[in-house]
Amino acid sequence: MRVLVVEDEPDLARAIARGLRREGMAVDIANDGDAALDKGLVHDYDAVVLDRDLPRLHGDDVCRALIDSGCDARILMLTASGAVNDRVAGLELGADDYLAKPFEFVELVARLRALGRRSPARVPPVLRRSGIELDPARRSVTRDGAAVDLTPKEFAVLQVLLEAEGRVVSSEELLEKAWDENADPFTNVVRVSMMTLRRSLGQPAVIDTVIGVGYRL
Predict the structure, then answer these.
(1) Residues 33/75, Cβ–Cβ less than 8 Å
(2) Which residues 6+ apart lie within 8 Å of 135 measured at CB?
(3) Which is nearest to 4 in space by CA: 107, 16, 196?
(4) Domains in the chain: ranges and CATH
(5) Which of 65, 91, 148, 172 has the fewest Cβ atoms within 10 Å of its own Cβ atom?
(6) Is the pLDDT of residue 85 over 90?
(7) H helix runs in 81-151, sequence order
């Protein structure tokens, strides 16, 4: 998943981002409403963790603008208030889920994964293809029943390939879905990650390179 974390407390935003990256997610951060809207309209996020009380542009306005723009990202709103009327107000704006602060990080991760399964192209809880089985919730990968040890980035790349269900995935799409906004599109990070992923998965090779187009599993 690629996630935008919108939180005006920088330390909290960085802590959330670090935790989500450890879960294999690509994460960008915005510390105010204007920056959130700018990033949300440019990048193809799977989910937005949106603090409701934001400077410059209120979280409610960000939520409304993203939905009006046709953005497909699922929106999980955060707020310091757990009052029922606040939860109802957030959901009525079009948010997909709501979590009151303080929250347990494991619950945030579980909610984000649940939202990912409700994306426009519905993703099954466990992905299987060519003898490979990937379980995002358990962070586990097996090949023909044997455990495969992957780095977080290899895991993210493999998940994108499995979700494509045999479709060719371009390097640009992999960068958009498995890396954050700091990735340099002119580097060879995708090629290098693909090389290490192939090595980790072992033989026979299951990832094809479609010259000039991308990769397919």
Answers:
(1) no
(2) 125, 126, 127, 141
(3) 16
(4) 2-117 (3.40.50.2300), 127-216 (1.10.10.10)
(5) 172
(6) no
(7) 84-92, 105-117
Q: How many C-beta neighbours within 10 Å does residue 122 have?
A: 8
| Residue 29 to residue 139: CA distance in whole angstroms | 23
Angle at 44 between CA 199 and CA 115, to 5 degrees: 85
Is the model's pLDDT at 48 over the cut of 80? yes
Is 0.70 surpassed by the pTM of this model? no
> What type of residue sits at position 206?
V
pLDDT for 132: 95
| Cα distances (Å, whole numbers) of residue 29 to 2, 4, 101, 145, 186 | 11, 6, 18, 37, 22
SS3 for 31?
coil
* Residue 87 pLDDT greater than 80, yes or no: no
Nearest to 79 by CA among 52, 43, 114, 47: 52
Q: What is the pLDDT of residues 121-161, one digit of tens each?
A: 555 678 999 999 999 878 899 999 999 999 988 999 999 99
**Residue 171, pLDDT above cutoff 60:** yes
* Cα 165 from Cα 16, distance rounded (Å): 30
Cβ contact 46:4 at 8 Å: no
Centre a 10 Å sphere on the Cβ of residue 201 and count the other Cβ atoms it contains: 21
Could you check whether the bond before residue 120 is cis, i.e. omega within 30 degrees of 0?
no
Tokens 């309209």 correspond to what residue? 41
CA–CA distance from 212 to each of 103, 134, 146, 215 (Å)? 45, 27, 33, 10
Tokens, residue 120: 């426009």
Q: Which residue has the tokens 């990735």?
A: 183
